[in-house]
Amino acid sequence: MTVLLVTGTSTDVGKTIVTAALAATATAAGLSVAVCKPAQTGVAPGEPGDLAEIERLSGVSRLVEFARYPEPLAPDTAARRCGQPLLTLEETVTGVKALGDADLTLVEGAGGLLVRIGDFTLLEVARALGAPVLLVAAAGLGTLNHSELTTRMLASAGVPCAGLVIGSWPDAPDLAAECNRTDLPRVTGVDLVGAVPAGAGRWDRARFTATAPEWFQPGFVDRTLSAVH
Question: Out of 4, 10, 18, 37, which one is annotated catalytic?
Answer without folding.
Answer: 37
